[in-house]
Design brief:
By secondary structure, the protein is of the alpha+beta class. It is built from 12 helices and 15 strands. Bound molecules: zinc ion (ZN).
Length: 471
């Protein structure tokens, strides 16, 4: 995956700017020449390559007219030919549609598609007509760009930490040094765009090198199930944030042990107070029951968990344009407080961090976050829809006779909920269960299910509703 990054010049002196603008203007004439000569059927449309154009120009002296260095015009020819090729490809999309409209005969379609792909449309009257219709002769409109090949520039950091980019000017061995407003050196082929009195340096980088929050999101729809041993399991079967379980259980053990010791110390202090030994009471309170170290450790643990969860969400968004997830916010609203139960408190807090990470990463990286009703997603077979049993990390489906990975099965169900016509985000879980049962019953009997049928009622009675959250 490629991403474009832009560096900007800072405080570029006027003389250099004028020289670069002039170079870009001359290279604009090179572009215009390329478009005029090769921007149609006889040029790029006949399979002509930029290398052949260069050889022709060198042979007939065309290049001398432009007054630019050899490498500059050669790179510009290559760039302009690529623009024309893109223009041609866009026209072919239209012509392919026209072919589909014209004939239903697979052989005939294939013949025309192939002729189009290998640029031999001129031999077929219909294709020739269509191409001439859709491939409008373009013309160059670019007069403010300089393309610089990777081996033709260099970057230097000066004594004050400023990054300078040196690119070829109009004269041989006279580089133009451009101060940049970044400390990250551009790499690969550069496209300099002279705009608004400064230089924009555009270059491509591998998206995986970008800081995760700047990476573009992926293109697919991915369901995720929130776990405890790992932050997320996705509908492809991949697990993300696998260190979470270990982080949480070690923290839980540590907290339980510490709380036990603190309770003991507190009771000693209380006893001392009861016997009038206030000095001892204060000593214990000051030295043994302080909160500074405790708070610092807690903050460090929270930071580690957040990193684990955010990294997991970034991994999912790497491949997802749409992330489908259970709505993890406000799940515990209205319930009694969790008291001192360490595990449940940690789990509830983690859930909040996961919700926050999903929302924040999706927004920053441009993916959509879709919340769905997750009731019974961990107790339903994603293949046949039957309600089954989850035992530990396995889900067993009797009709299919298959054992699934429970969290993967749940993640796939969550993804499917996004397109479910009957189950909305706030459909009560009792109703969800009924809908799921009706579907499998219909599937088995191929008859509309009677809600009051004794069989269904009996089945409901035998399988009392578990909480939608029990996973
Ligand atoms: Zn099944």
């Amino acid at each position: 995956m490629k991403a474009t990054r832009i560096a900007y010049s800072t405080a570029l002196n006027v003389g250099k700017h004028v020289a670069l603008v002039e170079q870009a203007r001359r290279l604009g004439r090179v572009r215009s020449e390329v478009w005029q000569r090769y921007g149609s059927v006889g040029g790029v449309g006949s399979g002509l390559t930029d290398r052949q154009v260069r050889d022709r120009w060198l042979a007939d002296g065309t290049h001398v007219r432009f007054g630019v260095l050899a490498n500059a015009w050669k790179e510009t020819v290559r760039d302009a030919m690529a623009d024309i090729a893109a223009n041609l490809a866009a026209a072919k999309v239209e012509v392919r549609r026209a072919i589909t409209r014209r004939t239903n005969d697979p052989a005939e379609r294939k013949r025309m598609f192939t002729a189009l792909a290998v640029d031999r449309w001129a031999e077929d009257p219909f294709l020739d007509r269509q191409m001439r219709k859709h491939w409008k002769r373009g013309r160059n409109r670019t007069h403010d760009q300089i393309v610089v090949r990777a081996d033709k520039y260099n970057t230097v950091v000066d004594g004050r930490g400023r990054l300078w980019l040196a690119v070829p000017g109009l004269q041989r061995r006279r580089m133009v040094r451009i101060p940049l407003s970044t400390t990250v050196a551009p790499a690969g082929t550069l496209r300099l765009i002279l705009r608004g009195g400064r230089v924009e340096v555009h270059y491509q980088i591998d998206a995986s090198q970008l800081r995760s929050s700047q990476r573009p999101c992926g293109g697919r729809t991915v369901g995720v199930d929130k776990g405890y041993t790992e932050a997320l399991t996705d509908s492809d079967g991949a697990r993300h944030g696998c260190g979470l379980g270990e982080l949480l259980s070690s923290e839980s053990d540590r907290l339980k042990e510490r709380n036990r010791r603190r309770a003991k110390l507190r009771s000693i202090a209380n006893n001392a107070a009861r016997h009038g030994d206030h000095a001892k009471e204060h000593r214990i309170a000051a030295n043994n029951l302080g909160t500074v170290k405790r708070d610092r450790q807690a903050a460090r643990h929270r930071a580690r968990v957040r990193t684990e969860i955010f990294t997991a969400v970034h991994r999912v968004v790497d491949k997802a344009a749409t992330v489908v997830a259970e709505d993890l916010t406000n799940r515990f609203a209205g319930r009694t407080t969790l008291g001192r139960n360490v595990n449940r408190r940690l789990a509830a807090w983690t859930k909040g961090v996961t919700a926050e990470a999903l929302a924040s990463v999706s927004e920053r990286r441009g993916s959509a976050l879709v919340h769905v009703n997750a009731a019974y997603t961990s107790q339903t077979c994603h293949r046949c829809g039957a309600l089954g049993r989850r035992g530990g990390d396995r889900f067993h489906c009797t009709p299919c006779g298959v054992v699934w990975q429970a969290d993967v099965n749940a993640a796939i169900n969550i993804r499917q909920r996004a397109g479910d016509p009957d189950i909305a985000l706030h459909t009560p879980h009792q109703r969800v269960k009924q809908i799921l049962q009706d579907r499998t019953d219909r599937h088995r009997t191929r008859l509309p299910v009677q809600d009051s049928s004794p069989a269904a009622a009996e089945r409901r009675a035998n399988h009392p509703n578990r909480s939608a959250m029990s996973k």
